[in-house]
Amino acid sequence: MKALLPLRIALFYFLLSFTAFAWCLVCLVFAPFMSFRTRYRFVVQNWCRCAVWLGETLVGLRYEVLGAENIPSQPCVILAKHQSTWETFFLSAYFEPLTQVLKRELLRVPFFGWAMWLLKPIAIDRDNPKAALRQVAKQGQERLEQGAWVLIFPEGTRVPVGQQGKFSRSGASLAVNAGLPVLPIAHNAGMFWPKAGWSKNPGVIQVVIGPAMHAESEGPRAVAELNQRAEDWINMQVRQLEAQHQPTP
Question: d(Cα 48, Cα 151) in Å, to the nearest integer?
């Protein structure tokens, strides 16, 4: 498989792009007439499952989930490590319905952005962090009340393997104000799907879902403490995964 890997990667990207374009066209025709939950399953969950399956079948990006028993019955705020594109596909397929915080520029991408707009994302302006924080608080609360999970990558962008980004408190703040926990998720996807370049490394991606974390008090101090607890847990788990698991040669 190693000798054919570059060809498989090229085929993977071709099929990923083709299915994304075709699926967006179909969704723009039918999705507006669906309920939000049905729309999410039709537009996002099915295609993201297809993307994960293509990665597994063509490139050897298998995965294992640990801690699924920690997922609460009621949707809450998900705080996840961000290393690659893979976890965006995986988490969007694994939790439903799910609202994601993303940069608003993505909604301007023809077809893809238009389809994303139908899914009620929280599209923020990264150049205006104060306004973005208020938007996450307001729209995040609305999405949680509608029964949707809210996925936040607290580092704000993909961070290369072995590095740590500063954790935003927006997710912890949303959880505290809503009276809900945060669900921390760690993984080592960046070891197999690097942030930079087109290369892929076959192997088993480990996804670890931690225990739901509740605030121990109220107010800004509770937000800071909860955010720090989630950050410490995620970073510890990621370090352990990166030390224990390596891509298949």
Answer: 15
